[in-house]
Amino acid sequence: MFIAFREEVAAVLADALDDRGYPSDDLGLEEPPEEFDAVLASSVAFRLASEAGAPPPEVAGELADAVDLSETTYVDSVATQGPYVNFTPGEAYFADALAVREESGRLDSTGDSVVVEHTSANPTGPVHVGRARNPIVGDAVANLLEYAGNDVDRHYYVNDAGRQMAVFTWAYETFDESELPEPERDRIEYDMVRYYRKGNEFLDSADEAAVEAAEAEIESILQGLEAGDDDTYERVGEVVDAVLGGMKECLARLPATFDEFVKETRFMKNGDTDDVVARLKELDEAVYEEDAWQLDLDGFEKNLVFLRSDGTSLYTTRDLAHHEWKFDNYDRAVTVLGEDHKLQAGQLKETLGLLGNDTDQLESVIYSYVNLPEGKMSTRAGTGIDLDDLLDEAIVRARDEVESRLDTRDRDDDLDETDIERIARQVGIGAVRYDIVSKQPTKAITFEWERALDFEAQSAPYVQYVHARCCGILDDAGEVPDGDVAALTEPEARELLREIARFEGVIDGAAADLQPHRIATYTRDLAEAFNAFYRECPVLSAEEDVRDARVALVAAARHTMANALDVIGVEAPVSM
């Protein structure tokens, strides 16, 4: 509805501008403030005032008079309000909003294939809280692009060729189980990370001769990977695959799932990295300094090192090959990165351009890290708070909150222990995801339980409860009728219809800007509109025609809220 309405507005306004001899390249369309009855407004009169030699309100009136609505389906009227030209929808717009169901928010296919790379945490141990924003934001970005009509693949790029993995492999093969502490959790990555931590402790504190011998073994592993030695690949792969298996289980709890785990060694073994190195050396920006091949890139404070003196490549070198592979296989490549990768991302894009690639295909979402009030976290020292710990705590706290509300529920269904556990998981993990994805990615987050699990504030439980309430009404109503939009005359019902109708526009805009937090904001707007409708418009006790229309409106609200929550990866409970 909204997109079709916007297209109609754009067409009739452009015709009006052409008719009056004004340029129509910038229509100045925007959503007006809440107090305006219009769905869209144009500020084009500001731009044209000088050319027209008249004040903006006069120009707006001239344009409004020139607008022809004789062939529009959704646009019902045009009027001015000061310098603005306002466009108001008709009954067809609201009728289509009333009829939305499972398809709510899903846009027509763009024909584009998009790869979204996110998380890609080094497989050195459990996923920790500080980087939890990557899988949460990344999964939401992928969902958003899919709703916007793109064919989306979700990739995890596995760093299985760097020094960390060589250290891990050496440590796993060197130390005995008896030398290690008990694992913090009964899952494979918690078992394996003990070797990695033990290895780093050894390298930090052992005598010089022992460290030198260990470093020789580590260097041998790195050289074996660079040379394509199958035995070395197998040794490192055993460690990587074990740790990655546990990390997958953790991420599935969010949930964040992937279509493919792409290993960087793939681009070493197939020769792509060597090809990139050869081409980089031919660039005018290539220099050999400080025993390494580097690129001296304009506008960057540091050179990009792409080949060490011992002939080993670097992560960024292999990532260049990886991105060229993406460009060959997808129309767009979106990468979700922590703020500490901002310089690297800029250098990568600049270098890809120098290598002859169309870097318009490449987009990045940069995010700040998540902190808990207790302070920052570290994986290497083993002092951090793992994502598993956060999710466990979220479920426990949500369960306490759910149980405290059992006596005040407005539904008469009996919740058994399985129901309570389900709701606690949906609300607890939903609270974590919602609190993180609802903030602009570049803003730092300190996660706070009281805010995230507040059923009354603008949080996950607040919007989840609206979906659950819709489900309760629909269960009691039985079959959902079509409903006549003409029976919905109350301003609260019309406002709810307006919110439902604009969902596809929110999807379209948020996807264009890669901003899933705008969907979280939308869920709060939709929840407020529904709650106002629920307070003022009894559903099941209304007269038949009004009842049918209101039941249909509840169904439309339910599906829209479910899909909005689905975009940001938050479950929509059927009861709470």
Sum this structure up briefly.
By secondary structure, the protein is of the alpha/beta class. The chain has helices at 2-19, 44-52, 56-66, 91-98, 133-147, 163-174, 188-205, 208-227, 230-252, 266-269, 272-281, 315-329, 342-354, 387-404, 417-437, 449-452, 460-477, 491-501, 503-513, 517-536, 544-567; strands spanning 29-30, 40-42, 75-81, 84-89, 113-117, 151-158, 260-263, 286-289, 292-295, 304-308, 332-338, 362-367, 370-371, 445-446.
Fold and architecture overview:
Strand 5, helix 5 (133-147) and strand 6 form a beta-alpha-beta unit. Helices cover 53% and strands 11% of the residues. The protein has 21 helices and 14 strands. It is an alpha/beta fold and 576 residues long. Helix 2 crosses helix 3 (56-66), helix 11 packs across helix 12 and helix 18 (491-501) runs parallel beside helix 21. Strands 7-6-5-11-12 form a five-stranded parallel beta sheet, sandwiched between helices. A four-stranded antiparallel beta sheet has the order 1-2-4-3. It has a three-stranded antiparallel beta sheet with strand order 8-9-10.
Low-pLDDT regions: 375-382
Report the end-to-end length measured between terminal Cα atoms: 31 Å
Query: What's the average pLDDT?
Result: 94
Oligomer: single chain
Radius of gyration: 28 Å
Q: Trace the largest sheet across and list its strands.
A: 7-6-5-11-12
Shape: flat
Helix content: 40-55%
State the secondary-structure class. Answer: alpha/beta
Task: Specify the biggest β-sheet.
Answer: 5 strands, parallel
- Residue share in β-strands: 5-15%
Q: How many DSSP-defined strands?
A: 14
Count of DSSP helices?
21
